[in-house]
Amino acid sequence: MIISVNANLTREFAASTAHGVIAELKAYGADIIISESTKAEFEGESGVRFLPLEQCAEECDVMIAIGGDGTILHTGKTAARCRKPILGINAGRLAFMAGLERGELDRLKDLLDGNYTLDKRMMLEVLLFDEKGLCLDRIDCMNDVVFTRAVNRNIIDVTVESNGRFVNEYRGDGVIFSTPTGSTAYSLAAGGPVVNPTIESILLTPICSHSFNRHSIVFRPDERMNVFASKSDETELCISCDGEPPILIRPGCCTVVQRSQTKAEFIRIKEDNFIEILNSKMLHP
């Protein structure tokens, strides 16, 4: 089995955890490739190869991400594009998406033996259209897409449609569209519900709403959500997908949020269920 190892070395325990992972994988006969961005840390490891992260994803059978949720999220999107499963190992504080803790590296034998299940996660597709309806860009999101004002003012007016029908005009700091996986991220902090990631759906959560329409809405996964600045508000919007740098949306343009055809596959070695993970990670961190 060819396994790609990607570690976020800014995390305190990531380097030591990664060396432990590599040692375990070597003991079980795995071929290891490592993101070349971390070559300086791991060039002393024998029998490993260094490649760009995207090429690691193309050549491996499984990707391992070592760090916090951000590291797992970033690596997971790369893995999903290449239709490869990912195992997250927590070297951060929370790492809700992690399948193993750093003290459980002996369980990697189960990975090599095939003793695991695949937890398939829905992703969002974001389409950016100009004033003439020409599609300018397409982005996949694993957690969420956030709409906010492009300039520093207090209020924003965002209109949302579902399958061409008016849903609401949200007046406040913006809106969040999230996957069930992302329901425990920014959406939760903004007052949204926690949704079991096996229940495919699209969550809409207003951010600091200045109206009575401040509650989240859970939509079917096949809904096509149109989002644009209200006609009464000519301010430019910006969007941020999975916390990446914002993209400017000019007045008159439209953004579509819908279910992506791409799915992420998380490796689950342990038998804990969603509620057990929620209790251990979120309620008793």
Describe the structure.
The protein is α/β, with parallel strands linked by helices and 285 residues long. The chain folds into 2 domains: 2-116 and 269-283, 3-Layer(aba) Sandwich (Rossmann fold); 123-261, Tumour Suppressor Smad4 (Sandwich). It contains 7 helices and 18 strands. It has helices at residues 14-27, 39-42, 53-59, 69-81, 108-113, 186-189, 274-283; strands spanning 2-7, 31-35, 48-51, 62-67, 86-90, 100-101, 117-129, 135-141, 144-149, 156-162, 165-172, 174-178, 202-207, 217-219, 225-229, 237-241, 247-249, 254-268. Strands 3-2-1-4-5-6 form a 6-stranded parallel beta sheet, sandwiched between helices. Strands 8-7-18-15-10-11 form a 6-stranded antiparallel beta sheet. Helix 2 (39-42) links the parallel strand 2 and strand 3 (48-51). The longest helix is centred in the first third of the chain and has 14 residues, at 14-27. The radius of gyration is 20 Å and the shape is elongated. The protein starts with a strand and ends with a helix.
